[in-house]
Amino acid sequence: MTAITVQLEDDMAEVLRRLAAAQQRSETDIVRDAVAAYVQTTRPLPKGMGNYHSGQGRVSEKARDLLREAVKEGLRP
Asked: CA-to-CA distance for 3 and 30, rounded, in angstroms?
């Protein structure tokens, strides 16, 4: 097992302490379970996502229009 250090805001750390006490578990066990649950519900980004710059601004806002144009030009099925 690998040890890591996590920094929490004071209020979040207090919530963690209280939860651990209420459940009679260690803070480490609760964080470990929370990370395991997060990993199960989160998909990784597609390979290369965020690694490139299109040179165009506001692409996410214009995504639908850009995709329509790509289809019209035969660049997308």
From this structure: 15
Q: What angle do CA 70, 75, 77 make, to 5 degrees?
A: 90
**Tokens (6 digits) for 7:** 């920094």
pTM value is: 0.55
Return the H-helix or E-strand segment holding 35.
Answer: helix 27-41
Check pLDDT > 70 for residue 39.
yes
Q: Which residue has the tokens 């006490």?
A: 21
Structure tokens belonging to residue 64: 């639908």
Domain boundaries defined on the chain: 7-44
Residue 31's nearest CA partner among 68, 6, 66 is 6
